[in-house]
Amino acid sequence: MKPAADRIVLASVAIAASVALTACGGPGTLEHGVVKDKRGHAAYTTTEYRNVYRETNCRNITTSAFTLSAVSKPGPGGSRSSQGGGGKGSQPKAPDLKKTDGKTGEEGTGGTRRVCDRTLERREPYPQNHPASWELELEDGGRTRWKPVSKETWDETRIGDRV
Fold first, then answer.
1. Which of 58, 74, 128, 148 has its CA 20 to 30 A from that of 17?
2. Residue 88: how many other CB atoms lie within 10 Å
């Protein structure tokens, strides 16, 4: 066979062996063994918050290429560079003061665009649901795997049991 055909045959055999091992429950699966560890938690809900803004003081601005870049990219001391750092428990970041809608003319010729100031109106709570999770760490012949189980199985099983 030609070298290119050898590569195709070799790749085909490798793929077929991989599919056969996966389909037949090869070395990757571990359904039974000795319980080495348990982990789990009941379902719970946390509350996250999202900011809701209101557009105010909207106006149309006729722009040239120069004013377009000056409005959309403020320099030092502008609204974007004065934002504080974020993180849990800190104050929300100040919104961008210039929000644009609409379109400008061709590049370099300017045009008209709509510019609005944004004001933080409220922080809206929304729930994040986290489902229950119950798992057993099984070991068999030196291989280990975390296996998801029902709450009842998790309660009835002890470390060292064979399942």
1. 148
2. 4
